Each structure stands twice: as structure tokens, then as C-alpha cells.
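Quick one - inputs below.
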Amino acid sequence: MRNFSYLRATSIDEARQAAALPNAMLLAGGTTLLDLAKCGVVEPDKVIDITHLSGLDAVRVDAQGASIGALAKMSRVADDPEIREHFPAVAQALSQGASAQIRNMATIGGNLLQRTRCAYFRDPAVFPACNKRAPGTGCSAIGGVTRNHAVLGTSEACIATYPGDLAVALVAFDAVVHLGSRQIAAEDFFLLPGATPHREHALEPGEMITAISIPTSAMSRRSTYLKVRDRQSYEFAAASAAVGIAFEPDGRTVRDVRVALGGVATKPWRAQEAERALIGKPASADTFQRAAAIALDGAQPHDDNAFKLELARRTIVRALQRGAS
Amino acid sequence: MTDPTTMHLNINGRAHALTLEPRVTLLDALREHLGLNGTKKGCDQGQCGACTVHLDGARVLACLTLAAQAEGHAITTIEGLSGSDLHPVQTAFLEQDAFQCGYCTPGQIMSAVACIREGHAGSDAEIREYMSGNLCRCGAYPHIVAAVRQAAEATP
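Output:
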């Protein structure tokens, strides 16, 4: 790990100003930044430690919704009784992420900003070509081993999967990312790779996530997060789905629904076409399967990840069945 | 200021003043600068759990924590887990033969102590889930689960 200067920020303003300096990076839990610094993927000149800032780790839930400070630890939010009751998909996504140790370190803000696990992105010494890491150099993954790569939202420049769980639940339930001076819908916070895969989110230099908020809804209260992976624990999603269903008074017709996918797309993936196909329909295996097929319409598999299409469809159906029960 | 700076760390109840480069991790500070070799370096990338220590009582990975970040927090390593006697979790690991080569064991024990304290050792399934951040290449997992269960059952 290349050396850097270390500044312990004492206020949000100081952190923002320092973060706007050339090649400066904010340090919270460190589980992404220090890992990638050791891989040589990021080489900051200045590291600004924000973990000693106070007042950014509160978790509040009221009738309108939840507000979660950017520095709240994953473990704290996952275990919060009110988050578990009102936003079960959020609590489940958090408690199924990483390991107990990492959940004690990683913050909610940092969780959103975690980088892809693409093995080519993470290995600059062996694979110098990576449009995400070094714009314009090409993509080593396309034509390589693509088992863990995305099938939705890909471009000719990048097929790297967004690895997180929490953000999938956040885009499903219309969460908002607060940046202090402005706020942005979680759905719009994450960017498609297109021709600029190095731009992963809407943060501008000198901006910092201060909180996220999630509105309460009938869907969020009855939500679930289903994560399918190669091993049972401490593993990224091969496919995942955050869903929440609200029924008409008859108890079986879908009044409104949210569906978002993880592990298969270049960003946390809201499946709005699938949602539209479910609204007004009875909650049945047929309806669920049709919606799951629609969610994967236009998916583009590469050599090794075609299995993700069927896996994602089955994950959606199972999540909907769980959400409906 | 990339130059070495002096930081004050509270480790196992003792205050230490260390002059280190900003990039030095808590793991390297413990092992290379303080002679506390009980905390192990496995992957050095947050994937194996061998470097697990407690920060204010919560289990964290020393390899992904800067020493400078740990200033102001109480750090506990395997050396500071108990006094002259073995900690009940250490005894349970011995009685259940919960290791082979032993390299992951300090991290397993630090993780297990926290796992029990968190209330996440209520069943074998829960122990497996909440100990999943600690890998054992010898594959001693069944005995590790048995040791954590034994220690959890003995904890009031």
C-alpha cells in the first residue's frame, strides 16, 4: 500500500473541503478503501478519516420513514428493532452482507460506495486494461472468465456487477441519499456504466453522503430480501431480490409492488416493468413467473454467466412467494 | 503529512505511544511494532478473519483498520483476553480440539468471544452464520462450532 497523508476530520465542512482536494479520499469503515489500496486499485495521496465525526450515526424511525446516518455501522442498523419491523428487507440485506467483523466496521454510506468484485478490476498488475479503473484502456472481463459478471445494464465498456445488498433494498423502496446540501433518489444515485464506467455514482468532488432516508409504505413493511450465493454465508450474491407486496382488501390481488435485483446488474436494479406486470393481478405462480421473465427481458449474458438469467428469474419468483405469504 | 506521526493507542488496558507512517494498519502496528504476535496475518485483505481483535468490545479486522483510526478506542487482542488463567472460550477450544495448525485460532477465539457476547451463539446454525468471517483451512469447523457451543452454554 502506497503511503498517504492522514487527516482526521473534525467537522463535516472540513471533511468536504479536504475531499475536494486532488486525489483525496474519505475513509470510513475502511473495508473497501484499504482493501483496494492494498490491491493497488486506488492510490490516494490524502486519506480523510471521517470516523471521528459525531452526529452522523443516528438511526431514527417514525411514521414517515427511517433516517439512517451515513456513519451508522451495518451491524447496528441490521439489529435495530424498528428497522427490522418496518423495513425487513433492509435489515435482511444488511445481516446477510459480509461477515460479523466487517458489519461492525463498514458504514451505511461506505456500503453504498463499495466497488465491484470484478477480478480484473481488482488486479491492476496482471490486468492493466479496465475501463472502470483506467478509463479508455479496455475491458479485460469481456472475453475472459465472466461467471460473476452482470447480465443487466452492461455496456461495451464494462460488465462489472454492483456487489452490494443494501442498495438493492434501497432502490426497491424509494430511498433517498442525502448529501447535505442536496438529496438524490437512490435509484438515480447509481449510474449505468455506458461509456464512462469509472463514474459509478452521482457524488461530485467534495460531496459526502450524510444520511439515507427510506419512506414507510405498505410494501416496505411487508418486504423481504432473498440472497442466493455460492456458499451459505460470507459471500456476494449470485442473484438477489428485494420485494415488497401490498394487496387489495381481497388479500390476493396485487395493489402495488416493488422488485429490485442484485448480483446480476451493473447497478442496484429496479425492475419496474416487472412491477407493472404484477399490479392488479392475482398473486399466483403464473403471475410471478411472467413478471420474472419480464425483469430479465433484454438481459445480455456472456460466456459463463448465462445461468444468471434463470437463477435471477427463480430468485424473483421465490422472493415474491415469500413476500406474499 | 505522509511522515511518521505519533499516535497513542490503548491496547489491552495499557497506553502505548507509537510513531508510525499513516498507512500502517492496526495489524502491522501490533505485530511489527509492539511484538504482539498473537493476532495473525492471513490474507491481509479482510477475507479470512485471522486478524480479528476487539475495538471497544466489538470484533473488527485489524488488517483493514489503520492504526491511526484506532486512536481513542480500547483495543483488545488475544494476549489481553484474560489474565493469567485461560478465558473460558480458550478452554473450550482446547477441550473440543477445535484446531489443527492453530494459525486461525486467535482470530476464531476473539470472534467467538464476541459472538457469544452478542447473543449470536444460540444454535449451531447461528454459530456457523455468525462465525462465517473466520476461515479455517484445516477444516476444523465442526470442533470450532462445538467449542463455541460449549462456551456459550457455560456463559450465564
